[in-house]
Design brief:
Layout lengths: L6 E2 L1 H8 L3 H9 L6 E3 L2 E5 H17 L1
Antiparallel strand pairs: 1-3, 2-3
Protein name: Helix-turn-helix domain-containing protein
Length: about 60
């Protein structure tokens, strides 16, 4: 992990994407959104969230 990488909680990602808990966990389960587990806590690096958004924007532009 690079210096300055912020880790987000699932509720923080839910708020940023305006999605429900199930939708965020579906993105994680389908490996569209990378995450790590620390103990029992799931964390999402900010760069993984940015990558998801970038990928979706590129897909929309190509459609």
């Amino acid at each position: 992990m690079t210096t300055g990488t912020e880790l987000l909680t699932v509720p923080q990602v839910m708020e940023r994407l305006q999605l429900g808990r199930t939708a965020v966990y579906d993105l994680i389960r389908t490996r569209q959104l990378a995450s790590i587990t620390l103990g029992r806590a799931r964390r999402i690096p900010t760069h993984a969230l940015a990558n998801l958004i970038r990928t979706r924007l590129e897909q929309e532009a190509a459609a």
